[in-house]
Automatic annotation (TrEMBL):
Pfam families: NB-ARC (PF00931), Rx_N (PF18052). Residues 195-364 form the NB-ARC domain. Residues 33-115 form the Disease resistance N-terminal domain. Signal peptide: none annotated. This is Disease resistance RPP13-like protein 1. One of its GO terms (biological process) is defense response. PANTHER family: DISEASE RESISTANCE RPP13-LIKE PROTEIN 1 (PTHR36766:SF51), PLANT BROAD-SPECTRUM MILDEW RESISTANCE PROTEIN RPW8 (PTHR36766).
Amino acid sequence: MLKFLPISFLLSQEVGKAMSAVAEAALSAFFGVLFSKFDSLESLKFAREKQVYGEINKWEKMLRSIRAVLDDAEEKQMKNGSVKIWLAKLQDLAYDVDDLLDEFATEALGHKLIQEHSAGAGKIHNWIPALCFSPSAAIFNTKMLSKIKEITATLEELVTQKMNLELRENVGVRPKRSLPTTSLVNEVHVYARDNDKEAIFEIVLRNDGSDDGVSVIPIIGMGGIGKTTLTQLVYNDDDIKNYFDLKAWVCVSEDFDVVKVTKTILQSITSETCDLNGLNLLQAKLKEKLSKKKFLLVLDDVWNDNYNDWTILGSPFEVGAPASKIIVTTRSHLVSSVMGTVPGFSLQELSNDDCLSVFTQHALGARDFSRQPNLREFGEEIVRKCNGLPLAAKTIGGLLWTSMDHDAWKDVLKSKLWDIPIENSGIIPALWLSYYHLPPHLKQCFACCAILPRIMNSGRRI
């Protein structure tokens, strides 16, 4: 089995610091491996001391109580240094527990091979007592008991610290994907998109008098640049509400399913739960609802560029009234060319001043630094690193929310995360959120790949 080795041994100090949060977040995946070993304790029946079983059972119970707060700890570590230290200690302990369970499994396998050899040779001996009291077995037992007591003591300390840190247990399972978008927006927190909004307005409200069907308007831009927010502003405008007979908003995302998307569109239009499942029935019902109606449909966060999928999905839209519109937000120019019937609208980055307003709104709950002038220098430097991406500014602002600690702002500014060589380093906080919502097994894969040097090209599948 591939284990996580301490990052400091595998990376340079610079990259090691940058990826420490990744390694600690991967604990949720590593715990799953540990519990699978606890569930296979049949292989440990060779243990000579009943105290071993009692201690191991105690470990499992304590680790399960710790695992219940891992999500909360992983989320808080970026803002709480004590939680970060607690996670680092827990990471080291998890490796120790895994190593010890592996040693037990190795001993069990050795005993099994000896037993099979003895049986095959026709030598039926009472070998267990001999093994139990042999010098090598005595050394193994002493060594194991010492390690077990040490691990138990550390676990008890971590459980106590967990309570002192007030980490919360999960009330449910964390979603495996990022949260879906909705049509609602807080316009107070949106900056410098008035001109973009007017440009989209002109396209959406334009009636070219043609009978060629529904117009599809792509809005294109990198992740975190504000495509969804801009579309929300347009969607909720009173003029838009009055112009269209029907409106629907659907977050499509990467998991494209024609049946699911069709059903969601139907439910959004009717504001009713739909019990239909088959694509034919769903499209027939949707066609009925859209017939001769002027509608606006938003398909947010589209990744699928398969022309055939789009053709199937779009079948019911042809019955809509002239001047019906579909807005598609996407990062992909290929999606835009496949789906769009008009030239795509490319959304640009915010200016540095506007990005600063986004940052201060989420970090200080204000539009500027008038109440905290001592933080202005750090704030302005942080925002420059965001490269005009509002999601990056919002994310880092959220990390520093209500924190007036001079050192905390300095730590964010000097973080090695900014130095990771990607095309736009300011999106790193947004990528962190995306990483945080990955399922545990993908976190583990990500952390394994992250320990490889940047210049290394792997010629093999990992």
